[in-house]
Description:
The complex is a heterodimer.
Chain A: H1 8-22, H2 24-61, E1 66-70, E2 75-77, E3 82-84, E4 91-92, H3 95-99, E5 104-115, E6 127-132, E7 144-147, E8 156-159, E9 170-173, E10 176-184, H4 190-193, E11 196-199, H5 200-204, E12 229-230, E13 232-237, H6 243-253, E14 257-261, H7 264-305, H8 307-315, H9 320-363, H10 373-404, H11 407-413
Parallel strand pairs in A: 6-11, 8-10
Antiparallel strand pairs in A: 1-13, 1-14, 2-3, 4-12, 5-6, 5-13, 7-10, 8-11, 9-10
Helix pairs in contact in A: 1-9, 2-7, 2-9, 2-10, 7-10, 8-11, 9-10
Chain B: E1 2-13, E2 16-28, H1 44-51, E3 59-64, E4 67-68, H2 74-84, E5 85-88, H3 100-111, H4 116-129, H5 145-157, E6 163-166, H6 182-195
Parallel strand pairs in B: 5-6
Antiparallel strand pairs in B: 1-2, 1-3, 3-4
Helix pairs in contact in B: 3-4, 3-5, 4-5
Amino acid sequence: MAGDIRGVRWLLISLALQNLGRRKARSLLLIAAVAIGSAVVFTGATLMQSIDRSMSVGFTRMGADMMVVPEGALTNIAAALLVVEPTELVLDADALAKANLASVGRYAAQKIVRVEHSGIGSHHDSVDLIGFDPARDFTIQPWLAERINRGLQPGDVILGAERDAPLGSQLLIFGKPHTVYGRLGRTGVGTHERGVFMPFATLEALAAVIHGPMSGGGGAPPAALAPGKVTGFLVELAPGATALQARFAILSALSGARVVAGDTTLSGIRQGLAALLDGILALMALMFVSTALMVSVLFSAIVTERKGELGLLKAIGARRGQVIGMMVTEAVLATGVGGLVGVALGVLMLRLFERSLVYYLEKLGVPFVWLDTPRTIAFAVGAIVLASVIGALGVLYPAWRASRRDAYDLVRSEG
Amino acid sequence: MLSCRRLRKTYVTERGAVTAVAGIDLDVEPGRFAAIIGRSGSGKSSLMAMLGGLSRPSDGTVTVEGIDIWRLSENALAAFRNGKIGFVFQFASLLPTLRLIDNVALPAMLGKRPAAADIYARASSLLGRMGLRDYLDAYPSEVSAGEQRRAVIARALINHPPWCWPTSPPPTSTSRPRSRSWTSFWASTARRARRSSW
């Protein structure tokens, strides 16, 4: 129909849209600039969060800051976690509880027994049975890559990554049935990858039937299986405590113990990554400000160019809010589209990142945990909203200034 | 009644202050036609802009129907311009990205008076009277300069303004005799516009 009816908002939005269309090259450049900024913000934020999560998960998986073992025990400071080798030397299970050291945040006791002829794997396969206290443990359960959908119960076992029995299946250990509760992720430590983990009670229940190498080949069961004895403790420092403080405190409280600290380079990497993430955050903030300034400068020029139109709108009765609103709509449309394009670019960049660096990291056994989908979508929406906010903030001052001027001055100054 | 007292406008330029309007007193009764004539640069447009609420005076008062318009708030002044005065500028004053009918309807839409359908019906009627019935959906760039100016007159009359501010000679039209004077053209146009109803 000729002369279709349009509402005033539609008319003002139409004005904004068509003004963008009038200067296509300029609008496209603006959209491209905002798109690049939004892509950096979206990709940066998603990656930062993913790296932060990976670091958090990774360092939780490290298990502990230090290990307390009997003097003379063999230890293995693997890249990923502290591991104690099974020996006949043991500590009292309540040694650290009695010491009550302020520099010790939390600790997890472990009993480790190396056995043969257990029924797991081939006949002469040597298997580490590792007992832990499910209530206090913070070193094994974070490694769980998969598990059945219930809590850990007596009689359950957790397999190392290399053991391939299905979840929920029955595993006979020395003829006794156990349920496969879960499987650990790759740790990079062979004994752990082939190990079988179980609660203390489950391991102690096997004491009567275990006659492994450590037991003297048919003699008494291994010392670690004796009630009240453990192979060692994995210790996490109290907040603010240093490794040195904890080491001296433990050595002075526990006689016959040895303290093994983790690899300090890991702490260095962690601190370095944290500093890098802070730097990226600062760069993103600077980029936000510089994009807002650029949009402001551009819209100052656009407002100057369109003084006549704004003056005319004021002359026929447009209120200041309507004049500002039209300009803000125009800017928000342009920068919002820029934000949308930026998120699409960001998704492509993340895919590229996934196919290159993350692939190699995972091949090296370094875990990389992507941000979950809802939060990634929230970041995408946030980047688009942020781009729109940049547009709104950028245009606000020039539009506000123009709206303050007399309509006649605006019309005259256009020439 | 439209009145102004000691109306003054001074522009500050790089070469110093330039007085465009120096202390004008004026009274115009409703229904009367007043023409402000003078040579180029004598301050006619500046005076009209101050009387119409478009440009703030450096000094003096403008009273329309008993209201000192330059004491009104920004929004009230915008409402005054929207409802009380129909401007016909001497420069090309249609928004190029809107159709002729949108341009004509826009002041009424901004004023939120009747329903949009009524506004568009009146805009269509006014454009028809200006000989532009076939160009309702046309954009300003698609019609001649004279047709644009007729659309501007239709826009000036859309809100039934009690005061009309034409700052240019009437446009030529095939439907109107060229011999008609400017004042009589505006007079007849305004009368016919007032007689029409929403």
